[in-house]
Amino acid sequence: MQDKILVVGAGGQIGAVLTDALREAHGTDNVIATDLRPLENQSGPFEILDALDGNALTELVKKYRATQIYHLAAILSATGEKNPMWAWDVNMRSLFNVLEVSREQQLSKVYFPSSIAVFGLQAAPAMTPQYSVLIPETVYGISKVAGENWANYYYRRYGLDVRSLRYPGIIGYQSMPGGGTTDYAVDIYHYAVQDKPYECFLRADTPLPMLYMPDAIRATLQLMEAPANSLSVRTSYNLAGMTFNPGEITASIQKEVPDFKVTYKPDFRQAIADSWPASIDDSAARKDWGWKPEFDLDAMTRDMLLHLREQYSV
Length: 314
Ligand code: NAD
Ligand code: AKB
Known about the structure:
Helices cover about 45% and strands about 15% of the residues. The mean pLDDT is about 100.
């Protein structure tokens, strides 16, 4: 049977790229992009949807006879700390709406991304294992820990095939990030190609796990295509690509743009970054569904600069 996929939050940093990849894989008309705000340049069906409106979500699932939902709408770590109750409300209520409509309408699969933000100061600071103490420092992280457990609950209690990845910071040239702590690693490339100095909001020596967008999209599609009986993790899979700090990404860019200058002025996001691990053990993903990242820091830098130079015509 042909799948019909509803993407919730399709206009975000990941949604914009993932929606195109899903349309490529499943056919343009079989992927319905939705977001709170109008999106330009849609090649396929698009609907305005506030994921907090459960009735509107149910109507769209029925209208398009959706068989899968990719739920990408969320308030990220930095924005969430400015208004914790709002972030909790958006992240949890939208997830419940997605899980409930998927159960009621017997959807075949649901995708819900989690994050390295589930980890806190009590987790191992490097090569953090799949099964770790999860005491996050941010409301975003708390919502992801709770979300992972609800995903697992719907799978065990109702047999709903919910799948999830703990994305590291995602870096891509196609879209801008939406209020996270890892956003600097996208912004810095935009400054570099425009020959502007960049002021980084994290210290130069702050290592974080990161992943290039093509790897993130490939991981997502690979997980969603994997046979259900190969998946041993029903909360969310650890996923790793590379680790670097702001000093190292600057050095990588300077190999291509020698005059690029970066200064450091840490703000409230430093404490969030300090509470996250530097690297992640993703051996369960590698074993269960064959995960392997392709891009390292320098390969990503070359590809980012190539595409951004085209975008800025420089
Ligand atoms: P984003 O902030 O760039 O995009 C979120 C999208 O959701 C936006 O287009 C926004 O308009 C939409 N949205 C917000 N509230 C909504 C609502 N009530 N109803 C409908 N749409 C709404 O986020 P992203 O970076 O694309 O992240 C997508 C998912 O991946 C999130 O769950 C996020 O937690 C997770 N994630 C992202 C990263 C990353 O580095 N980008 C890392 C880890 C996990
Ligand atoms: C953020 O920084 O909040 C996100 C994430 C790692 O979840 N990029």
